[in-house]
Specification:
The protein has 333 residues and is of the alpha+beta class. 21% of the residues lie in helices and 31% in strands. The protein folds into 3 domains: 66 residues, no CATH class; 128 residues, Immunoglobulin-like (Sandwich); 131 residues, Immunoglobulin-like, CATH 2.60.40.10. The chain contains 4 helices and 17 strands. Helix 1 packs antiparallel against helix 2.
């Protein structure tokens, strides 16, 4: 390796032969800066320093613009769960992830990753994975610092959230032939290592109970031998548990289990329904919610003052239709 040591008129520094392109690039920048300072000191009213400054800015732009993007992605849930706790959400909320380089690590040679996904991975079964790319309808926003995901109805109740990026990786393989023995190396597109965001767990929520025979909202207590559909959120893909009035149903009394609906055929009377998805029990929901007392009093007063026999008969019939059917185990309420 030979070093050019003599100082020339145009340059103050000389490069070392066989250096990398990046080193030569930096040396050129340093030489330009040094020459600009010298010109500014010798000729303070010259326009050359300004031209040199603009030239240096153009040279430094790729480094300054993407310097932060060359770091590995870092992300977390917002709001952050407490230490040792999992993130949790309620129906209607979104998964909000903040951090840096959420679009992936930038490379001067290859740019940003060609593809990226956010994945929901079950803790019980690592093969149960649900991934979404930026074009998925559940992705509301995906920038370098913010990712907002609508929670899918079929989400696993307990799992982890990860990011992954489709990038170029250097791979080598041995080449053997009749007259050839060696190694071939090149870049191939592959999914990189997962970036773990955090873990979560979701408690189910019951919203309504449907009479499967009529298809309408149920009014009254659950009757033995009849089929009902319990609808809600985050029941999970696997079969869980159902309680009616605190009494757990047998497996034979659960007909269908879906992530957002469960069909049951209880063998006893009841009113309150709960669902367990493997994480926890939902809040007990009554099969029929009676109107508040003040609403019933006002409706009764309006009917009495109207003096209409037809309206009175309709009102009495409605009371009979929605009156709770008390079972032998329920007691009087």
């Amino acid at each position: 390796m030979r070093v050019c040591g003599k100082r020339q008129q145009k340059y103050y520094m000389q490069c070392i032969k066989h250096t990398s392109c990046a080193t030569q690039y930096i040396i050129t920048i340093l030489e330009t800066i040094d020459g600009s300072l010298h010109t500014l000191l010798m000729h303070p009213y010259s326009s050359r320093p300004l031209v040199a400054f603009l030239f240096v800015s153009v040279l430094l732009f790729p480094f300054l613009a993407y310097a932060g993007d060359e770091m590995e992605p870092v992300a977390w849930f917002e709001p952050r769960p407490g230490i040792g706790k999992r993130a949790t959400w309620t129906p209607g909320q979104d998964i909000v992830i903040v951090g840096a380089n959420l679009k992936g690590r930038y490379s001067v040679q290859d740019g940003y990753p060609s593809d990226r996904e956010v994945c929901l991975v079950s803790e019980a079964n690592a093969n149960d994975v649900q991934c979404m790319n930026p074009k998925d309808s559940l992705i509301k926003e995906w920038s370098q610092h913010l990712l907002i995901v609508a929670i899918p109805e079929d989400i696993v109740p307990r799992g982890t959230v990860k990011l992954r990026f489709y990038t170029k990786k250097q791979e080598c393989k041995n080449i053997t032939g009749t007259d050839t023995i060696g190694m071939s190396c090149g870049k191939v597109l592959k999914w990189g290592d997962d970036v773990l965001i955090g873990s979560y767990e979701l408690v189910p929520s019951v919203t309504t109970i449907i009479d499967r025979e009529t298809g309408g909202d149920f009014k009254g207590n659950l009757l033995p031998g009849k089929e009902y559909e319990v609808r809600g959120h985050w029941f999970g893909g696997g079969r869980g548990k159902v309680r009616v009035n605190g009494r757990q149903l047998f497996a034979s009394e659960i007909i269908v289990w879906l992530p957002d609906a469960v069909a049951i055929r209880p063998s006893f009377w009841g009113k309150f329904v709960e669902v367990h998805n493997g994480v926890g029990w939902s809040v007990p929901v009554p099969a029929y919610v009676e109107k508040p007392l003040w609403q019933r009093i006002r409706l009764h007063t309006q009917v009495k003052r109207s003096g209409s026999r037809r309206l009175r008969r309709a009102y009495d019939a409605s009371l009979l239709r929605v009156a709770p059917l008390l079972g032998p185990r329920s007691g009087r309420e």
